Amino acid sequence: MDARNEMELPEAEIRAHYPQALSLLTGFEHAPRLGKSAPATQVERSPGIRTTRRFRSTTPGLAGRSTARAEGTQLLQRIEDAGGDELPTPAAATVTRALRRAIAIALAVAGEVAARSGAAELKRTNLESRLPADRHREFAELLAVESLAALSVMANAAAFLLAEHAGSHGIEGITSDEVLTDNPLAALQGALWELDQNLARHAKDDETLIATVLGWAEALSSATASRGETAARIGAFTGASWRVEADDFPIAGFSPATKSRGPALTMAFKKPEEVIGNAIAKHQAMRLARMVVAYDFERMSNPFVELGGFVFTFLGDGRPGTGKTTLIQMMAGMINDYCMVAGYPFRYRNLSVDNIDSYQANPARMPAPSSTR
C-alpha cells in the first residue's frame, strides 16, 4: 500500500454511523438464504430465576432499550450472554465496541465507494422511479460492489481492532456462507446473522467469544475477497485507499490489515567518538542533532528554523558500508542524551517502506524528540 495515496476517512463521518451500527447489533430481522441456522438452544441458568438481564448496560454508547422482537437476531444479547453472567463481561464489552466501530467504518467506506462509482446518484434516481431500464444491470453491479466493500471493511476492521485481545484458543467449523450483495445493509445483516449463528455454536466463555469473532472475521474476509475477484466494476473499491487515523487502520481493497504484536523496536546508539571517516558529514550530523533539541515547547518553535538555518531533510548518500546508518545512530544517541538532560521524552519512528523511492536504497530512519513534555 502506498501511504502517500491514502485518503483519511473522517472521524466525524464514522461516528455519524454509530446509531445505525448499534441498531444492527441490538436487533434486526433476517431470513437466511445461503447460511445454515444453528440448532436452537435455550440455556436456563437457574430454574425459577428469570433469564433476562435486570441491569442496563453501562458500556459508553451502548446503553439503550432494545426494540428487537424476541425471534429476531439480537447479536448484542448473544455477546453479553456468552460470558455466562447477568452482567456483560469486559470481553463482551470489548467485542461489542469493536463490532460497532467496524460496522460504522464499513458504512462510511460504502458511502465513499458509492460516491466514487456513481451508485449514489443512481440510488437517488431509483428512489424517484426514474431509473432507465437499460441501467438496471449497472445499478445492481454497483450495489454489489458497495456491498462487498462494506463486508470486507467490516471483517478486516473487526479483526484489526480485536487483534491485541486474541488468545491461543482456535475455533474449528466457523462458517461465512451468507455473503449477500443486494445492497450494503442486507449484506451486513446477512454477515451479522451468521456471526450470531457461529456464536450460538461456539461461544461459551470470554476466550471462545473473542476467538469465534476473529474466526468469523477471517472467514468473511476470505469469502468476500473471493467474490470480489470476479465482481464487475470492483475498481471503485480496489482503486482507492483510506486510513482511519484514530485506529491507524489502513484500507486497501480486500487486503487484510494486520496489527503488529511484536516487541518494541530499539536502536543501538553510537557515541560521536565511535564514528570515524567523513569528518564533514559527522560534523553536519552533530550540528543537526543540536538544532533538533533546540525546540522551544512553550513557544512551539525552533530558533534555527526562524533563522533559516535548520535542515529539514538529511539525506545519507553513499555505497553500502560507508556509514549512513552509523550517522543516524549517532544523531539518535545525541538527541536521546540531550532529551534526558532536558527532561523530554524521546522516541523515533522508522518510516514505512512506501517512503522508498528510486534514489533511496534503504528505508530511512528519522529520530526526533517527542512533542509532549
Structure, explained:
This protein is mainly alpha-helical and about 375 residues long. The chain has two domains: about 5-250, no CATH class; about 270-370, no CATH class. The chain is about 45% helix and about 5% strand. It is built from twelve helices and five strands. A three-stranded mixed beta sheet has the order 1-2-3, covered by helices on one side. It has a two-stranded antiparallel sheet with strand order 4-5. β2 (about 240-245) and β3 (about 250) form a beta hairpin. α4 (about 90-115) packs antiparallel against α6 (about 135-160). The longest helix is centred in the N-terminal third of the chain and has 28 residues, at about 90-115. It is elongated, with a radius of gyration of 26 Å. The model is unreliable at about 40-70, about 260-265 and about 350-373 (pLDDT under 50).
Reconstruct the topology from this structure:
Blueprint: E1 6-8, H1 11-15, H2 18-26, H3 75-81, H4 90-117, H5 119-127, H6 136-162, H7 184-202, H8 206-228, H9 235-238, E2 241-244, E3 249-252, H10 279-292, H11 303-306, H12 324-342, E4 346-350, E5 365-369
Parallel strand pairs: 1-2
Antiparallel strand pairs: 2-3, 4-5
Helix pairs in contact: 2-4, 4-6, 6-7, 6-8, 7-8, 10-12
What is the beta-strand fraction?
A: 5-15%
Number of domains: 2
Order of helices and strands: EHHHHHHHHHEEHHHEE
**Termini gap:** 33 Å
Mean pLDDT rating:
81
